[in-house]
Amino acid sequence: MDANIVRKSVELASVAATDRVVEIGPGLGTLTRALLSTGAQVWAIEHDPRLAAYLRTDVMPDAGGRLHLMEGDALDAPRAGLATNEAAAGFKVVANLPYAISTPWMDSMLADPLPQHMVLMLQREAADRYAAAPGSKQFGAISIFLQSAFDIAPGHKVPAACFHPRPDIESYLLNLVRKPVPYLFSPETKRLIRACFQQRRKQVSSLLRGKLPDDGQSWISTLTLEGLDGRARPEAIPTKAWQRLSVT
Fold first, then answer.
1. Strand partners of residue 157
2. 7 φ/ψ angles, rounded to the nearest 5 degrees
């Protein structure tokens, strides 16, 4: 409900008239209108057919052809219908992300072509998990995948009073800027890392046994660069070390 938070989302993403912007779950179009006011082209996907109908009748007529609305599930179309060739030319994501899909949607976005910039309204717990540092309880597979591709820039707290109805959870504007040289994990490596964090209290030497041709010993030997060894638990291993793990 807070116009200041909407304005802050657009400002953090530095949205300009030349930008292509993806929005997930536009709802009643409050953020959509703010994005359109910059002159940007907006690709939006709305799951609720009633809200999609409202957007078509109340927002699209004033959009000057710059609102590309798709009705459907953002997990099936994470870029809201933005074509791959257009995405490759550069795009941003600004969204009040539906909290229930935040992690699977985020995971689907970590593939070429990556957005240049993402500003996402998230449940504070999810934002903390994405930004978590090694050694913390929140640090996990999604932290590694996200922080390998994006730098985390200063964001913004969002009080519960900004919403109607008022939620019982805290929210946060997470500000993500694509790294100059982003690193993307292969699907096979991502599956292995996720499996390791499902048993995060075990030592990595035990977790990798039987999962790699050499039981992961060649990778484990590189942990000495981080002052670690095979007794380390997944949450203690920094992102750069995980990037050296590869399933072929």
1. 172
2. -60, -40
121's CB contacts (< 8 A; 6+ apart) are 5, 9, 95, 96, 97, 158, 171, 172, 173, 174
Per-residue pLDDT for the chain (248 aa), expressed as one digit of tens each?
778 999 999 999 999 999 999 999 999 999 999 999 999 999 999 999 999 999 999 999 999 999 999 999 999 999 999 999 999 999 999 999 988 999 999 999 999 999 999 999 999 999 999 999 999 999 999 999 999 999 999 999 998 888 777 878 889 999 999 999 999 999 999 999 999 999 999 999 999 999 999 999 999 999 999 999 999 999 999 999 999 999 87
pTM for the whole structure: 0.93
Measuring CA to CA, how many Å separate 100 from each of 97, 105, 123?
Answer: 9, 10, 9
Is the bond leading into 113 cis (omega within 30 degrees of zero)? yes
Q: Cα–Cα distance between 128 and 169 in angstroms, integer?
A: 13
The amino acid occupying position 208 is L
Facing residues of 67 across strands?
A: 42
Alpha-carbon torsion, ordered 77, 170, 199, 220, to 10 deg: 80
* CA separation for the pair 27, 17 (Å, rounded): 22
Residue 71 Cα distances to 29, 47, 62, 118, 246, angstroms: 14, 6, 19, 21, 37
The residue whose two tokens read 């996907």 is: 45
Q: How many residues does the chain have?
A: 248
